[in-house]
Amino acid sequence: MVSQDTIRDTGSSGASFYNDPKIRGLIYQVVLFVLLVSFIYWIVGNTVENLRRANISSGFAFLHGRAGFDISETLISYTSDDTYWRALLVGLVNTAVVAVLGVITASIIGFLVGIGRLSDNWLIRKICLVYVEIFRNIPPLLVIFFWYLGVLSALPQPRESLELPFGAWLNNRGFFLPAPIWGEGAWLIPVAFLVAVALCWFVARRAHQRQAATGEQFPVLWTSVALLVGLPLLAFAAAGFPLSFEFPKKSTFNLLGGMQIKPEFMSLYLALSFYTAAFIAEIVRAGVLGVNKGQTEASYALGLRRNQALRLVIVPQALRIIIPPLTSQYLNLTKNSSLAIAIGYPDLVHIGGTILNQSGQAIEIVVIWMVVYLGLSLIMSGAMNWFNAKMALVER
Amino acid sequence: MKNTIKAILGATILGLAASAASVASADTLSDVKAKGFLQCGVNTGLAGFAAPDDKGEWKGFDVDFCRAVAAAIFGDPTKVKFTPTNAKERFTALQSGEIDLLARNTTWTLNRDTALGFNFVGVNYFDGQGFMINAKKLPGVTSALQLSGASVCVQSGTTTELNLADYFKANNLEYNPVVFEKLEEANAAYDSGRCDAYTTDQSGLYAIRLTLASPDDHIVLPEIISKEPLAPAVRQGDDKWFDVVKWTFNALVLSEELGITQANVDEMKNSKNPDIQRVLGTEAGTKLGTDLGLENDWVVNIIKGVGNYGEIFDRNIGAGSPLKIARGLNALWTKGGLQYAMPIR
């Protein structure tokens, strides 16, 4: 470093200053910066001027106005008397729900298919290959239409609903389940679950310490499962089984009561999961194949059993390869959820579009969309970066 | 080097300044004349109002209004280019200057007149919102008040969507809105049985019914739950253009009042009736047309091109069309309707 600096210094003292790479670099940066600032200034000024000339009102005050329209799926309370702001929040929650559930399902399918592609069984390997090639090569919008128009609309009309076990029904208006109604003392169950989680963590830590000190192993997995299932069940019994069900019943137009999962949500959720899973499968396959075969052989040589070798040696190394591209797939899934608009699932873009049209505040709505998707993406990639850092090779 | 940078910088700033000056000119009439055609925003496909026919030519009630404006400006009703817009895009398209005129069964409301920055030229169709159901599947239902618990298909971002919410709320009825952005998607969902009822302006219901798989199974319920005065719109801040479009509409209605039709317009030019002479620009020394920025025979061109209001109505949505919508509120004021033209004088 020192020697390089000396060479540069002697260079600048000689020829004229604009041949100095440092100063020239500075000039380029200043010019770029000035151009960028003037461009932004011009864009904003032009927009404001044009809005003023066209007598279009601007600003975010309209968000406090009454929305006046209804939304079919609301996880937080909402009526047409609420504000535009509240309606946007409903859309954001709907987007988040489909994104989170989609990410979980896509990961599960993706890991299974990815491992399946490496299976020793010819049939499983080929089925997984066909799955990946089909879903990877179809635009996500078509996959959504496939589920919505091809599968779910083909279900019977409400009057001819299919009756399923446990009081569930299926028709072209969705999937109807009995709704659980929790009674007095039901709060004990989540509390018991939290206690079980804490105990699991404690058990795992103790087992690790004991193994390090004495070499003896403890069945952590089975103990944890027993705790996580047993404690809530115990609490359920202790509270006197405080659970009843509301069953969906037939009425003039449709089934009433119970829980309804609408076809719009179903098709978006299934399409996003299946589509993204194809990409995740390839990432997983690449990750597993990316671990040197010598690692497996070395762990066998150390006396590890097959599942131990996988869990302790192969998977941690594969994850290092898998996580970074996995993050982009999660972001893709989240952003693809805006295709909901084509089938009428009330996500953020759908509701924002309605508000845009009712209020005419196009620029403001588009800004909100951009900020929200940027925020969601940053949160998600932040979480994945944290996970990646945890999994990364620790150099000592 | 310095000179190069200076030159690039100078050119960029000049370029920015030049493009800033060319944005959103406020003289639409001159712009339209200069480019040689009218850019008109219409529906993406609503039978009778705006839809391409089997030869790909746009036909319909709103389409003919665009053609009338083109005829008034150029003397040629074919000098129009159509931009199909869905309910959501239509306002942005007009605000941004992508289209010169929006004739797309759009309801005239205060909010759209003020906050969105539009001017409506006059009500070319008095409409009201209604409901359509499949009578075969729902034999007992004869009134919208029986729709409690129903799923209702509706297009997003319309006054329809707001009226729907208000109507069910006011009558204490439950319902489940199934909201689509595109008319075609809403139609398909209703046709496939995703919804029990479909709601939009009654004229639209009749038009959509024609496109369903079995139109005769569907009935339009008698309730009209709102006033929907449909009106063509232009941008605010350009009064000259507003005048041209507004008076084109008045000329169409006035011609029907005066009995001027596509067939007899040439004879009518010899008429001694001073009202007709003024309208057709045959009055001595008239400058009614030139005051508008048009030729003095502008109304002759309109009527030769598309006919009068009554002819446009009959041909596209009235007795002479598959829709067979009665004139009703849209009859002339002299025949018990609401269509009343301002005098051209």
Automatic annotation (TrEMBL), chain A:
Belongs to the binding-protein-dependent transport system permease family. HisMQ subfamily. GO terms for biological process: amino acid transport. This is General L-amino acid ABC transporter membrane protein. Its main location: membrane. It is found in: Cell inner membrane; Cell membrane. Residues 92-384 form the ABC transmembrane type-1 domain. It is a multi-pass membrane protein. GO terms for molecular function: transmembrane transporter activity. Keywords: Amino-acid transport, Cell membrane, Membrane, Transmembrane, Transmembrane helix, Transport. The chain crosses the membrane at residues 26-44, 87-115, 127-149, 185-204, 225-245, 265-288, 366-387. It comes from Pseudaminobacter salicylatoxidans. The keyword Magnesium does not apply. One of its GO terms (cellular component) is ATP-binding cassette (ABC) transporter complex. Gene3D superfamilies: MetI-like.
Automatic annotation (TrEMBL), chain B:
Residues 1-26 form the signal peptide. Keywords: Signal, Transport. The keyword Zinc-finger does not apply. The keyword Protein biosynthesis does not apply. SUPFAM superfamilies: Periplasmic binding protein-like II (SSF53850). It comes from the Bacteria. Pfam families: SBP_bac_3 (PF00497). Residues 37-268 form the Solute-binding protein family 3/N-terminal domain. GO terms for biological process: amino acid transport. InterPro entries: Bact_solute-bind_prot3, SBP_3_CS, Solute-binding_3/MltF_N. Belongs to the bacterial solute-binding protein 3 family. PANTHER family: AMINO ACID ABC TRANSPORTER PERMEASE, AMINO-ACID ABC TRANSPORTER-BINDING PROTEIN YHDW-RELATED. This is General L-amino acid-binding protein.
